[in-house]
Every structure is written in C-alpha cells, then in structure tokens.
Amino acid sequence: MLTVLATSQAQGPSADASAGFSYDAAFSRNIGWVTPEEQQSLRGKRVAIAGMGGVGGIHAVTLARLGIGAFSVADFDHFDIVNFNRQIGATVSTLQEPKVSVMAEQVRNINPEVDLCAFPDGVTDENIDAFLEGVDMFVDGFDFFVLGMRRKVFAKCRELGIPAVTAAPLGMGTAYLCFTPDGMSFEDYFQFEGEDELHQYFKFLLGLAPSALHRHSLVDTSQLNLKEERGPSTAAGCQLAAGVVGAQAIKLLLGRGPLKPAPWYHHFDAYEGKFVTKRLPSGNGNFFQKLRLKKTMQQFT
C-alpha cells in the first residue's frame, strides 16, 4: 500500500512560530560560499533521502540548512535507545517515535516553508516512483545491510537521470561515491549480480572504501560481523558523511565542479588524518580489488 504524508501546517511549526520566518535571512550566512542567485536555485531543488537514521537524518538537517527547498524522505523504523550513539533524531523524548516524522519536524522547524513529502512505509516497490518524482538528487541513507532496495533505487535514478550520492560512516571518517547519469553505474561499480548476500555485503564495504583507512582504528574486530549483520558506528562518522553530502549537493545541484564520480572513490578518516581519492577502473572487477576482497573475507569470516 502506498502511503505518503505531504507537508501540512498541522505537522509543521505553528503559524505564530513561523510568522517571523524569512528564507533570505535564515540562509544569508551561506552567501559567500554560494551566490544569492545560487541560493535561490537551491530553494527550488528537491532532494530525496532514503532512511532517516544514522546518516539519513543528519543529511536531511544539513541539506535543510543549505536552504534546499523540497524533500522526499522515507523510513519505516522508530527510534530506539541503541540509536543514541549516532542518530541525530534519537533522544529520550523521541523513543519509539517514527524516524521519518521526527526528522520531518526538524526540517520544518529549520524551514517552515519547505515542501516535504514523507514516506512512513520506507521506499517500496509500490512507492519508488512517487518517492523519486520531481527529484533533482538522491541521497543514500539506507542501513548498510539494505542492499536489495538500495540497488533498485540507484537503478531507477539512473533511468530517470537523477544523480545519486552514497556516503558511509566508517569509524571516525566517511567514504563516499557519486553516481551521475552519464558515468559509471552503481551496479557496474559494485558488481553484486550473481553473488550471495554475504559476498554482496563485503563487496559493498570494499567498494566504498578500497583504501580501508578505518581498519587501524577498529580496536575490537569481533564487533564487525557482516554475516550477523552488525557493526560498530560513531556520531563522528555520521557528521562527516553529512558534510560530504552537503558539499556534493552544491556541486551536483548547482553544476559546480570539480566533480569526480564513480569509478572515483573518496575516503577521509579524521582519526588517521588521511584523505584518499582515487580512480578504481572496473570498480569491484578490478584485479587488485578482487585480491582485497578475498583477503578481507578470510579475515572476517
């Protein structure tokens, strides 16, 4: 069943609370990094974000503060206490509250004029078209282990000509990839086809971060178990991922460069103080990448 909650005054700030709001004043401190004309362009853009948890929630807040004027946001989950270490919407007052509703309210409290469509069932086969309707950019906020629907959304974005960004919080850093309609596709880069679920998880992890800058700061490797679908995370990684997505949004939505889409990968680790940006020809089909995959699977399985 298709369920969409459109923005409404009842869901957002009260009329009194938003009466003194001015878009130009609210986002005036962005000017300098963007021109006044570019700020107004951002006001007219729609960004779709799948997932309102670890990275998705802070993506939404970061992009709202950039002045993005319209969002399509999706999540079927509720906040739990195990989310407190990293998810911006997770607090005592939001326990067991729907993530999509909590984060939609935060976005509306930043910009009460925002055009926001919420999908409380998450992204499904039934609503994927509505989720991506009129979208200028897609941001991947899916849980790491949600690969089936992630693959479908990236494929749909390519079909519709929508640029897409995925930024994963890895340790105290972030690895990110940008997929453009005329560049390498998500499937061609990760090469999931024909692999079982566990192999897909490892391919996703290794494809995101071939340089594996985060490996030295993982002090307890027993906490990473892809077979059991669990792994550690930090708020620092989520915050850095959102910063990266904000920067990529400026490039993609305003047509500013330089932009290095896949097969270029990018990985910044604040703990190690290192940044790697390299081209990975053939993506996971690269000979050296296949060796990394074999070694990593031997270590963690």
UniProtKB/TrEMBL annotation:
InterPro entries (alphabetical): ThiF/MoeB/HesA (IPR045886), ThiF_NAD_FAD-bd (IPR000594), Ubiquitin-activating_enz (IPR035985)
SUPFAM superfamilies: Activating enzymes of the ubiquitin-like proteins (SSF69572)
Organism name: Pseudovibrio ascidiaceicola
A Pfam match: ThiF
Protein name: ThiF family protein
Domain of life: Bacteria
Record-annotated THIF-type NAD/FAD binding fold domain positions: 28-277
